[in-house]
Specification:
The protein is mainly alpha-helical. It is built from 9 helices and 2 strands; from the N terminus they run ββααααααααα. Strands 1-2 form a two-stranded antiparallel ribbon.
């Protein structure tokens, strides 16, 4: 990061080999992956200097590919699970009504609302392109959501802020269902905790729920 003509700028360095790899496998990149982001830049960005012409060639090839792959079923489920957890945890802290728990509410709201805004797009299998494109999308397609966000941002009463946060979460997750119900068991599918692996090798949410039910009902 640096400043150019008084403006904050981000400078990314890469190699032609990396660009070629991104273009060669363009249809396979996930939205949000570094390769997927570079692929979108090649498709939609403006080239202002290209001494060898290789960027222009890569951009033309990238334009023939589809957009990065949107969120799959597991990613959508995980977005729903994480938002539901944060709503439940924030409401639990709010009910505790002691100074430390109430401060924790304020801290959690800082990142939880940002997560809701991001996953609004995840559950709709839309690509996240940053805050300003998100605002433009809401202005055109969901002004009620944006109004709710503005009310949340302006609210100073902690309890009302939590209520507005829950409304944002409910609106964001509308395509996939309601928030958690109290007493409901949630499953996050992934690699074994502490295994060092990034993702589960196999299995579904249904498999995990069935395993959990066996654990809590089998007397042996």
């Amino acid at each position: 990061n640096t400043w150019i003509d008084g403006r904050l700028a981000e400078v990314y360095c890469t190699t032609i080999a990396a660009i070629e790899r991104v273009v060669a496998d363009g249809a396979t990149w996930r939205d949000g992956a570094e390769e997927g982001i570079v692929h979108v830049w090649l498709r939609e960005g403006r080239i202002v200097h290209d001494r060898s012409g290789q960027l222009a060639a890569a951009s033309e090839r990238a334009g023939n590919h589809s957009h990065p792959t949107p969120a799959d079923e597991r990613e959508i489920h995980e977005a729903w699970r994480k938002i539901g957890y944060n709503v439940a945890q924030i409401k639990r802290y709010l009910a505790a009504d002691d100074p430390m728990s109430l401060s924790a509410v304020d801290m959690r709201l800082l990142y939880s609302v940002a997560e809701v805004n991001l996953h609004y797009f995840t559950v709709r299998q839309l690509l996240w392109r940053g805050e300003k494109p998100a605002i433009r999308y809401w202005l055109e397609h969901d002004p009620e959501y944006l109004d709710c966000f503005h009310h949340f941002s302006a609210e100073t009463n902690r309890r009302h802020r939590v209520e507005l946060y829950e409304e944002l979460a409910t609106r964001a997750l509308a395509p996939v269902g309601r928030l958690w119900r109290e007493g409901q068991t949630m499953i996050g599918v992934g690699a074994g905790y502490g295994s060092g692996e990034l993702a589960a090798r196999e299995g579904t949410v249904g498999d995990a729920l069935a395993f959990w039910k066996r654990l809590v009902t089998d007397p042996s």
